[in-house]
Amino acid sequence: AVPVIAIDGPSASGKGTVAARVAAALGWHYLDSGALYRLTALAAQRAGVAWDDEAGVAALAATLDVDFTETAIRLAGEDVGDAIRQETISVGASRVAALPAVRDALLFRQRAFRRAPGLVGDGRDMGSVVFPDATTKVFLTASVEVRAERRYKQLIEKGIAANIQPLLQDLRERDERDSQRAVAPLRQNEDARLLDTTEMTIQQAVNQVLTWSGK
Ligand code: C5P
């Protein structure tokens, strides 16, 4: 089977950056599964389908016209890389992600990313549901304060005005919703290694994952 490194963890933990760098270091494919939930939320918003309309959103998820390249994420040909990172879409993504039919519709699309020579996937359920046979499973986290700070710096670097307090509040609410939901709740799997990056640099985290993967 094509090897998979599964990196799961909470919002703003840095798992996306770490996963993308591990994939680049190995020359493997990369799956940003959160982007699929974000694209689904955006597509629903644009189609006028409510985020809690399970059948309606699942139908959209099954037929999403998406294209991931090195530099862009496209929905029906339009680059929506920035649009899907907006706060309203973050909320929408975590709402549609709570619907079992939506998760089901995205399952096979995610598995299609598993191609030789290997895949690094990041999300909430990479190691538990999507790739239960992953070769390396990591639960990557950091304290909520450090995650809010990282998100804050990211926004400031992009020239977007931000405040720590609302970011902290939002992360706490999203953690709560992602860990309390009935399907694929956010938690560390028994067979996943814990990588607490609170006091680590990105490069240290990348090196740890590479060491665990035996590469
Ligand atoms: O990782 P990211 O913050 O982009 O994910 C957006 C939302 O999508 C999360 O809040 C979570 O609810 C959902 N998600 C999920 N399962 C995944 C990836 C993301 O439920 N594998």
Question: What are the salient characteristics of this protein?
Answer:
single chain; 215 residues; alpha/beta; Rossmann fold; 2 domains; 5-stranded parallel sheet; 9 helices; 15% strand; globular; binds cytidine-5'-monophosphate
What multimeric state do the chains show? single chain
What is the count of helical runs? Answer: 9
Shape: globular
Rg from Cα: 16 Å
- As residue ranges, the low-confidence spans are none
What ions, cofactors and ligands are bound?
cytidine-5'-monophosphate
**For the report, how would you describe the main beta sheet?**
5 strands, parallel
Q: What is the strand content?
A: 5-15%
User: Helicity level, as a percent range?
Assistant: 40-55%
CATH topology of the largest domain: Rossmann fold
Number of domains: 2
Which CATH-level-2 architecture of the largest domain? Answer: 3-Layer(aba) Sandwich
Task: Find the count of extended strands (DSSP E, 2+ residues).
Answer: 8
What structural class do you assign from the helix and strand content?
Answer: alpha/beta
Mean pLDDT: 94
Question: In angstroms, what separates the terminal alpha carbons?
Answer: 17 Å
Q: Please write the string of helix (H) and strand (E) elements.
A: EHEHHEEEHHEHEHHEH
